[in-house]
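hi! just following up on the protien thing from before. the input was this:
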Amino acid sequence: MSKYKDKLDGKELDLGMCSLSTISVRDIALLPRATSLNLSYNRLTQLPSNFCSSLTHLTRLDLSNNSLTELPDDFGSLVNLKHLDLLGNQLTLLPLTFGELAKLKWLDVKDNPLNPVLHSVAGDCLNDAECRKCASLLVSYMKQFRADFERLEEAREIRRAEREAARLEVRRQKEKAKKLLEKEKRRREHETNRILEASA
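and the predicted 3d structure came back as:
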């Protein structure tokens, strides 16, 4: 039985203002009816590594007013998320998978020291309409950013492979030249010995 059962009200699991510095993902996952999770006003600095993969059923997530410095790399696993509140944390960047949150319709990222580019894309999030726009713009931006990033990584990998192939070819040519020199040296030694033997 989940230790959070008494915090469940309909579809909402309210763990807000509980002074939590850690959370039990297992106990949250034992309450699959809870599609809305409130973790606001706690002391969270990071989310457990299995948070996203275990809670893919969430549609609403409130992480506002914590001390999160980053989100898990697999945050995009929360594919059913429609409403996300990240107000008042310490986030500077978003994970590459953020662009996979295709159902996200509302997002608040105010009061985070976001990278200037992300802050510009997100806008001010001062009202409901701006939060809806923020969700659309940031998901689209992160989706494109990841595609561009992966293309750059692929190009870097190709260049690395080409450099390695060139390095191996240079080594092969050097070894081939060395063998030819050794062969020529043996031929000359053999020829010298033959002449010496003939003149003896």
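The CA atoms of residues 16 and 167 lie 58 Å apart.
The two ends are 103 Å apart (CA to CA).
cheers
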